[in-house]
Fold this sequence. Notes:
Heat Shock Protein 90, 5-stranded antiparallel β-sheet
Amino acid sequence: MKPIPILVVDDEPGIASLCKRILDRSSYDVTALTNPAIAIKQLQQNRYDLLLVDIRMPEVDGFDVISRARIAQPEIAVLVMTGFGTVETAIRALRQGVDGLLLKPFENSSELLEAVRLALIDNQRKRDTARVQALRPLFNVTESLFTETDQNKLLDLILAAIREHLHCTHAAIFQIKEGRVATIAEIGDPVSVDENTTAANLVHRVDEDGNPFIIHATGPGEQEAQTLLSNLGLGSAILIPIARSNIRHVLVAGRDSSVSQFRGADLELFFVLARQAIVAIENARLYADLREYVRRVEESQHALLRAEKMAAAGRLTASIAHEVNNPLQSVQNCLHLAGREDLPPEKRQEYFELARAELDRLMKTTQRMLDFYRPGASRVEDVDILELLNHVINLTSQQLSQRNIQLITDFPETLPMIYAVSGQIQQIFFNLILNALDAMSSGGELKISARAKSRGVELIFADTGPGIPESQRNNIFEPFFSTKDGGTGLGLTVSYNIVTAHGGALDLVDRKEPGACFRLFLPTGDK
């Protein structure tokens, strides 16, 4: 462990030597001096953790040495020695923030060692307390900045934080893009950053140097910058350049001429605050980009859903015509028979009842199809899976029969109700059945089974077609990927997205039999 450096200053050589011998034996790195002027130069050139200084010295007062030491090394611990332990001396020492007071002569070496130890501990405690007090408001600022994702509100928060913590009246955020300075946000009198203005040139220079910069309106400094501050009514200003990713900013804080000028501690605080502010700005920008991306994805998904609905509608035209034509023919026949003059009244009423029943069936079929086509039909409700599946089977049975496809169903008497969007689940059934129909152009067998599972319903759609090649199985749910000529490549993608949105699953099942087998799981859902 590296020894602690200590500087001993006492005009009495015997005391200085005694302190050095005692402290050296306790593994301290001690420099003992009798000349206060030389001691001050040492403090300006070398770092020490503790200053052990006599109060009364002929050339330079010990309190003057302490003041110079605080300027050169603000965090140095101070232990004063004196042979005149008066109340006035103690009060003056406390006002200068010393960490201990030791009376001369020492009774023994342990008294000196204990005083040094306590002074170092007290100084460390003071530094820790000051650090915590400085950091606590920054933690609160960080939390408030990082939780705000609206960029306009965030900029207002940043400016307010700069004004509050740096006690300034003016705050601004400038962005440097393509060689030009733009004002992002500002509080106080507006500063013109048009090209070739003093303010713009100053911001450019700070950005290019990459170093913070403090300007005072009076005293040594650049005349143009001082004139700019005076015109704005400011006594001092700090400029902090922050570069992150491809974005470069300069943050500015300005104090009125009636307030004390900025110091080095203000510069450090502003630097930490500026870095937090820029990270928060970048986070807000990324969050805005993410929201825009999600919006575009949602729009694309809705477009895919509409496109696949139109494609499915075209493929269902024959089934719809068949489903609608049958009740229309029945109604026509019933009305024709009811119009016979020789028909008894009770028989005529029977034909009218049959016609009414067929019209009711036709209206229900039409309503089902309207629910399928309607873009806004997304109301979540209790859905009877068996009823919905049987309806889709009825609509597609004519096409299955024309393709010589035998339909085999294995359904229980009842299944749990599913809390879902009826039209979207219906579209999944259409897609899976019509995909099987397209795969078996020369006939075959389609088996659909359903059963209740824990917290949901499982449905299996298995056909005896050629199946899906192993090399293409990982791509079947990707948009625009199709294994058939003229396919849109959207059916399974839309179905997969619908199932996922409902918290379910759609998988291609491996099996030994030929053909494709899809497993559909739909959770009961929460109301």
